[in-house]
Design brief:
Bound molecules: S-adenosylmethionine, iron/sulfur cluster
Largest sheet: 12 strands, mixed
Shape: globular
Number of helices: 11
CATH topology: TIM Barrel
CATH superfamily: Aldolase class I
Helix content: 25-40%
Radius of gyration: 19 Å
Structural class: alpha/beta
Amino acid sequence: METTANLLSDKFGRVHDYLRISLTERCNLRCFYCMPEDGIVLKENEAYMNKAELLSIAKTFVSLGIKKIRLTGGEPLVRKDAAEIITELGKLPIELAITTNGILLDKFITVFKNANISSINVSLDTLNEAKFNKITRRDYFTKVMSNIDLLIKNGFNIKLNAVLIKDVNDNELIDFIEFTRDRKIHYRFIEFMPFNGNKWDWSKGVSFEEIMSTVKNVFGNKIIKLTDKKNDTSKSYKIDGFEGTFAIISSITNPFCDSCNRIRLTADGRIKNCLFSDSETNILSAYRAGENITPLIIDTVLNKKLRRGGMDSMEDILNIEKNSKNRAMVSIGG
Ligand code: SAM
Ligand code: SF4
């Protein structure tokens, strides 16, 4: 497939070569920080990109300079044609990756290998079964843990994601890091972010500073700072002698907007130029009407705001009027 020079720059000179595609708004978990308590209202099937539309739109993005695609959701692996989509995307000249809650991983090992997926992010907010059931409102802890072992055995590059929330899982921080002692995994601690319906309140969040203070109290001068890549959204560390590593994603207290290279495509075919943005471009309608979607994509990227979808300051992000206009996270694709 032909690719050109990257045409996806914004007004601030940021070049976008990383697309996250949500395969579905459905999910087999109900994590309270992501999915509103009453769930979300799903649209009729036709409102979502079918396989052919998704692949064709993805190819247009690649022709404009996208070099990496991460599949997400909802839970990407609950989509019935997920394996076919992964297989087809695996043929494009891109790095393909996926973010999943891990429940269905064992059914996809061969598909991932054939599609050259090497990097897999799995959400794991707790190492305690009872707490897992409480956070996710489902009881798949044992399944997820055995699937993480399976990924390790199969040599995948694994990142585990934990959204840290006060009085929920913040007391497990050191256990999470201990989990990297004998396992070659990268554990990432994510600051709790506001989305529609997740009852966000920053007093429940755990900041970068607080995380590092706890880690320093326990590991002191055994903490080694690792070099971060230019577009990394996290700051990475390891503990001297440990097999694995860990990182902090501080989207609230220290966003990584200056080097952002990401765009998102929702399952219903809207481009979001920022995770926090409340504006969207409906390219699926344009595609179905036979319009050329290239100018729409270029324009949407060009008009990306400088920081967090226009919520520049900490004051803005704390303002419920401003931070609740976005969709629920489960229907964006984190
Ligand atoms: N279902 C898959 C999973 O759980 O990994 C993929 C979709 S999920 C929306 C993607 C990531 O978003 C997960 O790592 C999850 O922890 C993160 N996430 C969801 N809601 C969040 C919030 N309010 N703040 C920070 N991260 C959040
Ligand atoms: Fe589902 Fe992932 Fe959201 Fe949990 S974080 S409800 S697994 S989409």
